[in-house]
């Protein structure tokens, strides 16, 4: 799976002002619903919060991979947000998070979901990619960094 297949400019936001884990998840949910008429903001938020209750998706190095399953979704959707400043997200390394790469996946696609998470995590383990995302001042810059 290519990351370019799941990202888009209309689901990418740069330097969002935010100060809490719940608020960043609300922003991600708003972006998902705003650009996808078949997606309900409250359902997205509920799915992301439910997953976070199982354990933080903050993987360390200032990165979080919030994700959730949605009934009726036909394909994987990514929402990418950077925050300024970084926020407490209960990450594994206890460091604040400023890069959020959220994934929404069809409810029944468990195996594909895990492969997509692995692909994204692999891409975000590249230090140059992460540096480029952090330097980004526009959504275009973020998409370019992921290319």
Would you write up a description of this structure?
With 147 residues, this protein is α/β, with parallel strands linked by helices. It has one domain (3-146): Mannitol-specific EII, Chain A (3-Layer(aba) Sandwich). It is built from five helices and six strands; from the N terminus they run βααβββββααα. Strands 1, 2, 3, 4, 5 and 6 form a six-stranded mixed sheet that branches. A hairpin with a 2-residue loop joins β2 and β3.
Query: What percentage of residues falls in helices of 4 or more residues?
Result: 40-55%
Number of helices: 5
> Strand fraction band?
15-25%
CATH class: Alpha Beta
CATH architectural type: 3-Layer(aba) Sandwich
Can you write the helix and strand succession as a string?
EHHEEEEEHHH
How much is the radius of gyration in Å?
14 Å
The number of distinct structural domains comes to 1
Large-scale geometry: globular
Q: What is the CATH topology descriptor? A: Mannitol-specific EII, Chain A
CATH homologous superfamily descriptor:
Mannitol-specific EII, Chain A
By secondary-structure content and strand pairing, the structural class works out as alpha/beta
Question: Main β-sheet: number of strands, strand sense, barrel status?
Answer: 6 strands, mixed
Low-confidence stretches: none
Question: In total, how many beta strands?
Answer: 6
Q: Mean pLDDT, rounded to whole units?
A: 89
Q: Between the first and last Cα atoms, what is the distance in angstroms?
A: 13 Å
InterPro entries: PTrfase/Anion_transptr, PTS_EIIA_type-2_dom, PTS_Nitro_regul, PTS_SugarTrans_NitroReg
Organism: Alteromonas naphthalenivorans
Protein name: Nitrogen regulatory IIA protein
GO molecular function, one term: protein-N(PI)-phosphohistidine-sugar phosphotransferase activity
């Amino acid at each position: 799976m290519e990351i370019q297949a799941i990202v888009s400019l209309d689901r990418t936001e740069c330097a969002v002002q935010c100060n809490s884990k719940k608020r960043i998840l609300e922003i991600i949910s708003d972006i998902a619903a705003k650009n996808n008429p078949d997606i309900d903001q409250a359902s997205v938020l509920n799915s992301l919060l439910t997953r976070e209750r199982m354990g933080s998706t903050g993987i360390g190095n200032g990165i979080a991979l919030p994700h959730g399953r949605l009934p009726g979704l036909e394909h994987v959707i990514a929402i990418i947000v950077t925050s300024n400043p970084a926020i407490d997200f209960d990450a594994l390394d206890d460091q604040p998070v400023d890069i959020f790469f959220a994934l929404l996946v069809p409810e029944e696609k468990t195996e594909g979901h895990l492969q997509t998470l692995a692909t994204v995590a692999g891409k975000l383990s590249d230090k140059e990619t992460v540096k480029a995302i952090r330097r980004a001042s526009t959504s275009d810059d973020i998409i370019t960094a992921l290319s």
